[in-house]
Write a structure and sequence with these properties.
Elements (H helix, E strand, L loop, with lengths): L2 E10 L2 E8 L5 E8 H6 L3 H13 L8 E6 L3 E7 L6 H8 L4 H18 L1
Antiparallel strand pairs: 1-2, 2-3, 3-5, 4-5
Protein name: non-specific serine/threonine protein kinase
GO molecular function, one term: protein serine/threonine kinase activity
Enzyme class: transferase
């Protein structure tokens, strides 16, 4: 399967997320591209391995679905369900401090996610 890259949705230290479309049917996915050397340098290898394994094993409406994963010598690629918006890490980096109402919302969402996977 081949993908056509589109806009950048997130750009963090060791990874970048872009939307992409399948070339044959135009279905939209999120492509998370992780630079291996940066993951090693920043000590994120175990974190990324855990994330990938969790996405493979968990079938929950609260967790983004992983459809494909592959790698080359420089990058790890995760093809996931496309969801508009940003992840909590990006939100925190962008906003720095969340209002009490927004923090309460994300805490409640986090509790629901944890409950859904246990």
């Amino acid at each position: 399967m081949s993908f056509q890259l589109e806009e950048i949705d997130a750009d963090v230290d060791y990874y970048r997320v872009r939307s992409c479309r399948t070339e044959n049917i135009g279905e939209i996915f999120a492509l998370k591209k992780l630079r291996k050397s940066d993951m090693l340098r920043q000590g994120q290898v175990e974190h990324v391995r855990f994330e990938r394994n969790l996405l493979v094993e968990v079938d929950s409406q609260c967790i983004v679905k992983l459809f494909y994963s592959f790698q080359d010598s420089n990058f790890l690629y995760l093809i996931m369900e496309y969801l508009a918006g940003v992840d909590i890490m990006t939100l925190l980096m962008r906003e720095d401090i969340l209002s009490e109402d927004v923090a309460r919302f994300y805490i409640a969402e986090s509790i629901l996610v944890i409950h859904s996977i246990h």
